[in-house]
Design a protein that fits this description.
Layout (H helix, E strand, L loop, with lengths): L13 H17 L5 H31 L12 H33 L2 E3 L7 H15 L5 E4 L13 E8 L7 E6 L7 E3 L9 E5 H7 L9 E12 L13 H12 L4 E7 L4 H10 L7 E4 L9 H4 L26 H7 L2 E5 L5 H12 L3 E8 L7 H11 L3 E6 L7 H13 L3 E3 L6 E2 L2 E8 L4 E8 L11 E8 L2 H15 L11 E3 L3 H17 L5 E6 L5 H12 L3 E6 L16 E6 L4 E2 L3 E4 L6 E5 L5 H5 L1 E7 L3 H16 L5 E4 L5 E3 L11 H12 L24
Parallel strand pairs: 1-6, 8-9, 11-12, 12-13, 14-25, 17-22, 19-20, 20-21
Antiparallel strand pairs: 2-4, 3-4, 3-7, 5-6, 7-8, 10-17, 11-15, 15-16, 16-17, 18-25, 19-23, 21-26, 23-24, 24-25, 26-27
Length: about 700
């Protein structure tokens, strides 16, 4: 008798799984084999991740608790139980983070001539310079805000650093209170002047500089206490597409409210006394569970100034230079090349600039008639936006589907959407009620023989900056059936037509979940019929209950399943009778693993899909996403024999998920190579760049050898 595969004990809570992912990020900061500034970088990423987690996930849970919701997920934990577990875990993680900072990172940075000083420790020229900097650069933008009967408590902005001041007038007993926001327009970490290159780097934190000179802002008062705090607020936007007459204007209005959402977390410096803590908690309607006392910088995100200092290059990973795909030689006829064969691009190991160059070439090519593109995230100075504008100016039909609701990029998207409109591009703001998250562009060109469509489908955004640090795969193709389906999908998104259904493309929210489920079930049925069954899926998150249960069923039937899940994984592997045939690993390394690859052995006739969607309810049912097949034999061979084995055999950056929800770091077997996927791909690029040694710099580690993907 088959067990109840939907039983709560078979599922890991989504939020707790995410925290385990951020623990893996923190482990990278703890890793002594990493260059020092890379460890600092991961401390920064850990804090940035945690900020967003509180702004969105914790904020949502607190709303559920406040509304009295008793809804539970597949793990059967109530909102209150989830919040309690989050609170304990985050307090433990933050304590580890600051212990690491104080015990290891600060001494190591000092050994490398990077020092942090309290302003009170400065003397002589340094003290004079710091005071002058305060007077000239900081003092003019400070605004003290009194808190009393006639001055209500000021609006403290989301993630702003503030100082709470208690003072008295001479001879009076009644204390006075005020709030001073540490200005956002000044750098949070200030480098003191250096006389020559051999001098050490000395830094002071802006908040400490303001604190020590704050008396100049309150002449005639005696300051009794000045203590820093940082508030995190609900950062989600509340938008009803169907009720919004003008979506762009509605989002602009919501963005103004984002900084004023309900408080969800209070961070204070370790020297903040209890009475100050209680006063702030009461003011923001928080409890001790929401309070984080920090023995160090009030936010590790303030360390980003160290990361951007080129003087510390020797403390970072060696520079990496992507290699051009041999199928796209510089100066070659890309149109001719694509008419003969598909091309698979692997970023960042192959340059995103090749893709940008294709769009720029299309913008000026007189034979190109139209360009259509989805844009979920891109940079404000994106060359792609410029190329689309140039194409429109050249008389081409240019359409951009812009997703205004890309979280935390809404303002940027509004700005460049207007830039596109001003340039004559037809801008469409997605589909009512859905986020347009698919990544694709289509170029219509009049070739010598006929009009032909050139298509790019990708797992990642058209963002030049993130393309350097995110791993993604993209397909360039002129396959007639696939390109026609893409053209039809564009028309569906911009027009009023119903979803027609496709043979090659799988599209959410229409059929993607059902078709993935069918592919899993086919492997299950193969195994039940005595044939081989094998599934390998690489994705960012696995949350959807229906697909998890389908994977459990396949495991029970004997299908061997490998899941490479970077972030959240609610599936619990290794449960006897449920998931003993499922292995889950997470890879956290130099680049952020973002590509989504799905392999189904299909009894010797393998099927491979790439896509924009993770297996999460939001991707499967509330977004427009695509998954697309890789049918070119050479490209399929590359994924099966090269890309997937590199990930499956990683024994350096891979962690294996345990049945209890924890992860253990995998280690090389005795006498075996230290196989590392990202290093393997970097080494491939280095070898392709070998003809240009002046620009190709190898990583410091020894390149691993590739182990073929295990057969079912």
């Amino acid at each position: 008798m088959q067990p109840n595969l939907s039983a709560p004990e078979n599922f890991i809570n989504r939020e707790l799984s995410w925290l385990e992912f951020n623990r893996r990020v923190l482990e990278e900061a703890q890793d002594t084999t990493q260059p020092l500034m890379e460890r600092v970088k991961f401390l920064n990423i850990f804090s940035t991740n945690l900020d967003e987690f509180f702004e969105i996930r914790v904020a949502g849970i607190k709303q559920q608790i406040d509304s009295g919701s008793t809804d539970v997920g597949p793990d059967d934990l109530s909102p209150t139980e989830v919040f309690q577990a989050i609170t304990k875990t985050v307090h433990d993680l933050v304590a580890l983070q600051y212990e690491l900072w104080n015990r290891e990172m600060v001494p190591l940075l000092a050994r490398n001539n990077i020092h942090f000083h309290r302003v009170t420790e400065l003397s002589g020229e340094d003290a004079e310079w710091a005071h002058a900097y305060f007077r000239n650069e900081v003092f003019p933008v400070l605004t003290p805000l009194a808190v009393d009967a006639s001055h209500p408590f000021p609006q403290v902005l989301n993630k702003s650093h503030n100082l709470m001041v208690r003072a008295r007038r001479p001879g009076e007993k009644e204390p006075l209170y005020a709030i001073v926001q540490v200005p956002r327009v000044a750098p949070r970490l200030i480098a003191l002047p250096r006389k020559n290159k051999a001098d050490p780097w000395n830094y002071v934190f802006l908040s400490d500089l303001v604190k020590e000179h704050l008396g100049e802002l309150f002449p005639g008062l005696e300051l009794e206490g000045v203590h820093g705090f940082r508030l995190t607020r609900n950062g989600d936007l509340y938008i009803d597409d169907e009720e919004a007459d003008n979506l762009l204007r509605t989002i602009e209005q919501e963005l103004r409210r984002r900084n004023k959402g309900n408080a969800v977390r209070l961070e204070v410096k370790a020297d903040c006394p209890r009475d100050f803590q209680l006063l702030l908690l009461e003011r923001f309607n928080l409890t001790d569970a929401d309070l984080y006392v920090l023995d160090g910088p009030i936010s590790m995100t303030n360390l980003s100034r160290l990361l951007s200092n080129e003087a510390f290059a020797k403390l970072k990973d060696r520079p990496f230079f992507p290699a051009h795909d041999p199928a796209l030689p510089p100066g070659g006829d890309v149109w001719e090349r694509l008419r003969h064969s598909d091309i698979l691009l692997h970023h960042p190991y192959e340059p995103f600039e090749d893709l940008v160059g294709l769009i720029e070439r299309a913008a000026v090519d007189p034979q190109v008639l139209a360009i259509k593109m989805t844009l979920y995230r891109t940079s404000g100075d994106s060359p792609i936006v410029a190329a689309l504008g140039e194409a429109a100016a050249n008389g081409k039909q240019v359409t951009a589907i812009v997703e205004l609701k890309a979280r935390f990029d809404e303002a940027n998207n509004i700005q460049w959407a207007r830039t596109l409109e001003d340039a004559g591009v037809h801008v469409v703001y997605g589909v009512v009620g859905l986020k347009t998250h698919c990544k694709m562009f289509l170029i219509v060109r009049r070739d010598e023989d006929r009009i032909r469509q050139y298509v790019h489908l990708s797992t990642g955004n058209y963002h030049p900056s993130t393309a350097r640090i995110y791993t993604d795969l993209g397909l360039l193709t002129t396959n007639p059936q696939l390109t026609q389906e893409v053209a039809t999908l564009f028309n569906t998104l911009t027009g009023l037509a119903e979803y027609p259904g496709f043979k090659k493309l799988m599209v959410s929210p229409f059929d993607l979940a059902a078709r993935f489920k069918a592919l899993i079930e086919r492997e299950r049925d193969h195994a039940l019929n005595g044939k081989s069954g094998r599934i390998v899926a690489k994705l960012n998150s696995l949350v959807d209950e229906t697909l998890i249960v389908a994977l459990y069923e396949a495991s029970c039937a004997g299908v061997k399943i490998d899941l490479i899940v970077r972030g959240i994984c609610c599936l619990r592997p290794g449960i006897p009778g449920v998931s003993e045939n499922i292995r889950v690993v997470s890879i956290v390394g130099r680049f952020l693993e973002h590509s989504r690859i799905f392999y189904f052995a299909n009894n010797g006739h393998p099927v491979i899909y790439l896509g924009s969607a993770d297996w999460m309810p939001r991707n499967l049912y509330r977004r427009v996403e695509i998954s697309f097949p890789i049918e070119n034999p050479e490209l399929r061979k590359s994924i099966i024999n090269d890309i997937l084995p590199a990930y499956l055999n990683d024994r350096v950056k891979a962690r294996k998920l345990q049945p209890d929800g924890s992860y253990i770091r995998l280690k090389p077997e005795p006498g075996k190579e230290h196989s590392q996927a990202q290093l393997y791909f970097r080494e491939q690029a280095r070898r392709r760049n070998a003809a240009a040694p002046s620009t190709a710099i190898s990583d410091h580690e020894h390149p691993p050898k590739l182990i073929p993907m295990a057969k079912p």
